[in-house]
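ARCHIVE CARD
Drawer: 12
Card no.: 0347
Subject: one protein chain, sequence and derived structure
Cross-reference: see card 0346
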Amino acid sequence: MAKEFKLTADRVKELGEELNYLKTTRMQEVVEDIKEARSQGDLSENSEYDEARNEQAKLFGRIAEIEDILAHAVVIADDAEASGVISLGCNVVIEDQSTGQIMEFHITGSQEANPMQGKMSDDSPFGRALVGRTVGDTVTVEAPAGRFSAKILRVYR
């Protein structure tokens, strides 16, 4: 069975727009680069031609990757009301039990995760520990950086 990619509707739209750009505008740019490099003569010693072909291969790879993601995408339901239980699409406010620091995360699928932007994957150790929990629960995570405990203060969408 193929892997499912859990995405928000916004991310599906972004990927669709990127795919359209890559298949139209960017594809034409790469084709022009190849034509220009080919016109410079001997292809066996033409580094511009090799570079243009490598760029074309990267482009085809990215197109295939996006098409696969979109073909196996599962759109995260963004309910207007949070049930109080942490799930995909929720925002979670936690308190680090060792430092007292308050942090906020948005629980996403792995394709949208970006911890530097506060987007935590449900597949990460911390994300797995949070999903299914409610306000007031304390979670402890065994992460590569060490043990981490946090109290859940707020869950909302």
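Annotation on reverse: The chain has a mean pLDDT of 87. The CA atoms of residues 64 and 140 lie 38 Å apart.
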